[in-house]
Amino acid sequence: MDDGCPQALLPADKMLLREPPPHTRATFGLMGAVGVVVNIVLFFADIVSDALLAYVLWKQAQLEDRFRTEPTTWFITTLCIIILPMIVINIFSLWWYWQNKHCLGDYCVLHKMGTTQVVVRVILHILLLGPLIRYVDILRYGIKMKREVKHVEMGHNGAAILRRTPKGEVHAVLQMVISRDTAMLDMMHSFLQDAPQLIFQVFLLYRSPGILTGKEDNSTLTTAVQLWKIVLGVFAMSWSLVSYQDELRRSVPDKEQLSCCATTTCLLWRASMLISRIITIGSFSAILVKPLQDPTSVFWLWSTDSHGKLIISYPIVTACVLAGHWLIMTAWIHAQKTTFCAQENNSTNPVLEFLYNCVMGLVHVFCYINVKDTPSRKRMVFFYAFCLIENSAMIAVWYIKMVDYPETLRVVVVFAVEVLWVIGVCCVIGYYSFLHPDHNNIVHLSNQASWRR
Q: In this prediction, what percent of the chain has a pLDDT beyond 90?
């Protein structure tokens, strides 16, 4: 993984004298264009699914009479999970555009645009459509850099080879910078919006039979939309992780891009691990606790028993478990002495580095990302063993507590959590053994380590 800090994350005063980004020989072929198109499709599909999800939950809340408060709460919570992360992402996107103006000089994106184009971008960000214009910019600069080529004579024999023009090199830099920032934004969006949204919808699927009753056809539609959102969200999260990994490789000299087979395997690896994790967390948070004084009811935050003793609900317990996981992961990443925000003169920015570690700690609540460009086998073994123990403990508690659910359903859920985790591990092993662009070096280093032992 690249250890350099993304251009947009560095302070402007530290970057005024930086040389233009060196990776001006980047290519933009069919697979790059397909990746951008997939991102655009996912962006619109995400908007449509969010709007439909909010609508069906709102309609369900209007139809519900007996438990009107809870469905309205679910609708408001879903709406907040949809809107607040989009505001954060668009603020970061617009800020990074502006930061590029300070740190890239003549290479700046905004310097290559007229006033109308700048205004259009600002308006789209205000409308929370900033990622869409970024995808358009990636396509635009990718096409321009492919067109800006000419034949250059080399050597005494007059042989001519194709080389990108200076203007084409500028477009290549702009395309590289926008692609990398966009990949970071997509990953941030996944873990700020999709991850909590999917967990919450799994939680609601358990609650639907008891609370979101309404009419049968509306209840069925609500469940269908929730399931569609979960499937789409898992794919979007997996795709953002693979895209981020590919962009990091692209921004490092002499790093090969992922092949189609490697990309597919990585998607399966990420999706399997994420589904297992999301099912576990969502199921654990949905465990019902019934007050002793009224066993026919349930509570969602806390209650007291007949002796006045405080009883905490499982959503609160889940939040505490995840907070503990995040703290452990953040401390673990900090202990690795990351240099993601190091400057070219090898100086460090402790504040930015700490913020980066906190963000990566949040990502590690759900999946593993290599934060240092060093062999990661031991780190991956630790992380996945830690998550396996945590997942198994949480789903075991769910199995024991949810006695009101059919045993067949409980067995299927437990089986799915464990099998998906195994599938993910198999994909990891297969990827690093056969499909990783540097797998020959990985095997060589592994053999050396075995020989030393």
A: 32
